[in-house]
Amino acid sequence: MVYAVVRAGGRQEKVEVGSIVVLDRLAAEQGGTVELAPVLFVDGDKITHDAKALEKIKVKAEVIGNERGPKIVIQKYKNKTGYKKRQGHRQELTRIKITSIA
């Protein structure tokens, strides 16, 4: 089993070839390719986490498309003062498909 743990969007994601991952918005066009930085690489029984060895490993992905996450409602309320505040948020996301780990 070959997989890698990559750093993307302030988080770490476990990816394999062919897996589809949703990340924070990337500056790439639909159908374009992006390269992700590996933090850990597992090739069968061999585990690589050394920085110099990881520089040689490339994780490439194809951008499937940009989308928006679900609406999150933020409400603030203070008792007996009449203070109420309501705010919404939708996160900008990018869906990618891992094409190669080499």
Automatic annotation (TrEMBL):
<dbReference type="InterPro" id="IPR028909">
    <property type="entry name" value="bL21-like"/>
</dbReference>
<dbReference type="Pfam" id="PF00829">
    <property type="entry name" value="Ribosomal_L21p"/>
</dbReference>
<keyword id="KW-0699">rRNA-binding</keyword>
<comment type="subunit">
    <text>Part of the 50S ribosomal subunit. Contacts protein L20.</text>
</comment>
<dbReference type="InterPro" id="IPR036164">
    <property type="entry name" value="bL21-like_sf"/>
</dbReference>
<dbReference type="InterPro" id="IPR018258">
    <property type="entry name" value="Ribosomal_bL21_CS"/>
</dbReference>
<dbReference type="GO" id="GO:0005840">
    <property type="term" value="C:ribosome"/>
</dbReference>
<dbReference type="InterPro" id="IPR001787">
    <property type="entry name" value="Ribosomal_bL21"/>
</dbReference>
<comment type="function">
    <text>This protein binds to 23S rRNA in the presence of protein L20.</text>
</comment>
<keyword id="KW-0689">Ribosomal protein</keyword>
<protein>
    <recommendedName>
        <fullName>Large ribosomal subunit protein bL21</fullName>
    </recommendedName>
</protein>
<comment type="similarity">
    <text>Belongs to the bacterial ribosomal protein bL21 family.</text>
</comment>
<keyword id="KW-0694">RNA-binding</keyword>
<keyword id="KW-0687">Ribonucleoprotein</keyword>
